[in-house]
Amino acid sequence: MEVFDVQRKNDKQYVLEKVKQNGKFLEFASDELKDDKESVLSAVQQNAEALEFASNRLKNDKEVVLPSVQRIGWTACYASEKLKADKDVILSGIQIDGQILYYASKELRDDEEVVLEAVKHKGLILKYASKRLRNNKEIVETAIKQDKRAKAYIASEELLQDSDIQAILNPPSQS
Which residues fall within 8 angstroms of residue 78, CB to CB, at 6 or more apart? Predict the structure, then answer.
């Protein structure tokens, strides 16, 4: 089993060597090295989940956060509030995991492009779209085509009763 010598947590070369083997070893690095861009990028490239252990400053650095989110979308949960409002960051993660709409800023939950991409990958994430977009026919259709259970999050009874929506939810039986 791999081990990390905590006595060497300030040794940049040692930390770089260890995080290239297992990115999550970043957890045991010194605070200074958790704030060192080279160390954190090496860790994130080896294991996208290592973003969790980066300093707050680097969780606000798009060059550090983007490669993590592009590989494992849900790591957006570790990004700074500023980057949770960055359309590039959120869209790149959504293409892997629609679930990350949950972590997106209020503004992006009201962005048609972002929400449409999210529901293509996970229809149930309609729940976290703005009310305005939960009333958008194209977005609702896309969401329920992906997962019919998304109908629970349609914002209006009128849209729920729409003939096109009903045709998706209750397709005519083939006889």
Answer: 51, 52, 54, 59, 65, 68
Residue 175 has pLDDT above 80, yes or no: no
The answer to whether the CB of 135 falls within 8 A of the CB of 108 is no
By percentage, how much of the chain surpasses pLDDT 90? 94
92 token code pair? 């790149």
Cα(93)–Cα(66) distance, rounded to whole angstroms?
8
d(CA 15, CA 140): 48
8 Å CB contact between 15 and 27: no
Burial label for 77, CB within 10 Å (0-12, 13-18, 19+), is middle
pLDDT digits (tens, 9 = 90+) for 33-91: 999 999 999 999 999 999 999 999 999 999 999 999 999 999 999 999 999 999 999 99
Residue 58 and residue 40 in contact, taking contact as beta carbons nearer than 8 Å? yes
**CB neighbour burial string for 32-47, b if at least 16 within 10 angstroms, e if fewer:** ebbebeebbbbbbebb
List the structure tokens of 93: 């993660």
Would you state the pLDDT for residue 172? 82
